[in-house]
Amino acid sequence: MTKVTAFLSLFGNAVPQYLINKNYPLPKVSVFYHTIKSNTEPFTKGLYRTITPLQFEKDLDYLLHHFGNRFELSFDDGLSSCAEVAAPILKRKGIQATFFLNTAFIDNKELFYRYKAALIIHACSANPSIQQKVEQQIKKKVVDYVYQVSYRNRHELDGLAQDAEVDFNAYLKQHKPYLNTSQIQKLLADGFNIGAHSIDHPPFFELQEVDQIYQIETSMNWLTERFNLSYKYFSFPFTDWGLSARLFHYIYEKHLVDATWGCAGIKHELFPQHTQRIALDAGYKNAAHAIKTEYLYYQLKRPFNKNTIQRI
Ligand SMILES: [Zn+2]
Known about the structure:
By secondary structure, the protein is α/β, with parallel strands linked by helices. Helix content is about 45%, strand content about 10%.
């Protein structure tokens, strides 16, 4: 959530719903989550809010009531809670969703580097002597350090984990944070869609274009072949901010993807295949609050023609 959006969120609930329904300028509202669970798992702490099943149902009822079939729902990061908690609720309510997966993480083979950072912080906060040992190593506060470790330097987190006495492989084995193959097959059999979310979740704006294409093409092809998909859906990890128009032209023209998703809120795009989504777990109280705040933001930017994302 940006500072401006955070400020506007104070007024979000003041926007009457009828204004949104009456004047809503987009053919659909696209929203997404990461995890639905009754308890927060330590690897997601500081990254996004865990939505409880009860809150999730309330959000869905709001979306169904106000937007009917004009909303679409997706989940990023491929967590096992998608199959265990979210999918049964969606099935009961007859709601379609797309689950975007990182191909390197399926079947709990590897852990997202930001989850590693969160687990290191968790281990330090549970044990002051471990925290001391880690901070002696990095000469900084652990919370200030680990989230600053870039994708390129992510191997540093494996070294710090040893100091923090965290075993990522054991964590993956014991807690199984990610979807496994049979859960994914079950989601498909239940009529849900799946898409790719890159190989291992790099921030694309830190990559060269050739590596951006590699991440998209490799993950998309792997998923399509592995699960025999008839479509190619891709959501950009972190953000699609700063990505060039050339990249979008290339991936559509070469049929590397059929459709793509970002997470910039309510925005128009130059490419009809690309949809921006609202993150419903980014700090808003609930779906109504998120949509009203984003809508307010959208309306305030309208006179300045700032609602279409510019790409060069
Ligand atoms: Zn993600």
